[in-house]
Amino acid sequence: MSMYYKKVILGLLLAFVVGFVCQLAHIPVPAPPVLGAALLVFLTSCGYWLTGLYLQRRETQGEAP
User: Which pLDDT band, with edges at 50, 70 and 90, does 1 fall under?
Assistant: First the structure.
């Protein structure tokens, strides 16, 4: 498993733990309460991750960004 996949899995696990702790402590979750806004945050994170993978592969193939 590559380092990037480990970071993604760790990030998702951390997000789950933060949400779980917020629910137990009865405090508002630090995320948008609307599905569309939460999806936007998720897709922004995916875009950031995919761009990092793309740039890393270009670098290893010897292409300049």
Answer: low
Which residue carries 């936007």 as its tokens?
A: 40
Alpha carbon 37 to its chain centroid, in Å, reads 15
Confidence of residue 65 (pLDDT cuts 50, 70, 90): low
Are residues 61 and 54 in contact, defined by beta-carbon separation less than 8 angstroms?
A: no
How many of the other CB atoms lie within 10 Å of CB of 60?
8
In sequence order, which ranges of 1-65 are alpha helices (DSSP H)? 3-25, 35-60
Asked whether the CA dihedral 55, 58, 59, 63 is positive or negative, the reply is negative
Rounded to an integer, the average pLDDT of 36-47 is 80
